[in-house]
Amino acid sequence: MKRRLEDARILMYSHDTFGLGHLRRCRTIAHSLVGDYRGLNVLIISGATIAGAFDYRARVDFVTVPSVVKLKDGDYTPMAGRVDLQETLKMRQSIIRQTAETFQPDIFIVDKEPLGLKGEVEETLQYLKARGTTLVLGMRDVMDAPHLLDAEWKKSNMLPKIDQYYDTVWVYGPPDFYDPLIGLDVPSGVRRKMEFVGFLQRSVPQGTKSEHVPDEDYILVTTGGGGDGADLVNDVVSAFEHDQSLQHKTLIVLGPYMPARERTELVERSSKIACLEVIEFDNRMEELIDGAKAVVAMGGYNTYCEILSFDKPALIIPRTRPREEQLIRAQRASELGLIDMLLPEESADPMLLSAALKRLTRRAPPSQSGEKNMRLEGLVHISRIVGDWLDDRDSYPPLSVVAE
């Protein structure tokens, strides 16, 4: 039964410079919370150009900031080519601050980037901390390879600032799967604030059904946002081109951010293979994964949670540059017997990938591995934590003065 809260507000920040992972994670948490608590409103600040392509539950809304795209080399560029990066960042910073001042959240949850893109959230963190908002940093189970994360965060003195601003740090994974800050010199204050809430369980949304679910058994190939997914799809198509004994129905989702030139070429090649079906995007990916016999993916956080949630045999071919997040997650999950894995250089061999695809259709689902890291308790734990905080809030009179 839903609990009633009186005008409780949560603001979430999702910088979204590459792919859809941050927005989809925030949306999952938001939908779970409004499902558990009547009277709770959640507002998501997002940099995703297609934030409006998703469905949102009642009492969940979003505000978009001008989009900035992360390039494959790690640099950034504005989506609107006529506005330079610094001007774009100033606009984003202003919108974030003004949204916080107007919305006046009880809780502010920042996804993955502690100070936001290029520090754009720090001013808002200062403002909200002064007025007593509970500040939460949400981290994936894996952030990056320790040496890469350490070098990146030392440049901006990140760990002391996490300790300075944040009340708690949620890790969206179990403690015995991976420690996202392993290998870093973590202040004791940050360690005390870290809470491993568990993986975020996914479910098939209610409402209109996806029109893309095939009538027959199918393998699903997904690249997430698709900005860096062309190599994976190319490898899959090449495997079917080289091995005509591969006949299993396969649905390929390119992703909305795949460059047009690569998308056109892959669609043309796939059209010559009868068992391949290619679509660009579906905002109900949970339904496509739930209906699949098996999944081939790059192993981003959301897809991995969906593979576990719907208990699907999976082959992960992780991205290895510029971040090693997907590689580390896939290696750990493979070590635990939860998924199969190929490195990108292995996947590029059509016959090697063909053999892996044939094995995949016979693979047992993750639940049969006997591994306890199937635990998907994150949303339940987050709901309990938020309920406790908001109960405490209602025990005290509201702030009479908002500090600047």
Task: Describe what this molecule looks like in 3D.
With 404 residues, this protein is an alpha/beta fold. The chain is 37% helix and 18% strand. The protein has 14 helices and 15 strands. The strands form three sheets. A seven-stranded parallel beta sheet has the order 3-2-1-6-7-8-9, sandwiched between helices. A six-stranded parallel beta sheet has the order 12-11-10-13-14-15, with helices on both faces. A two-stranded antiparallel ribbon has the order 4-5. Helix 1 (21-36) packs across helix 14 (378-394) and helix 7 (230-242) runs parallel beside helix 8. The longest helix has 19 residues, at 85-103. It is globular, with a radius of gyration of 21 Å. The chain starts with a strand and ends in a 10-residue tail after the last helix.
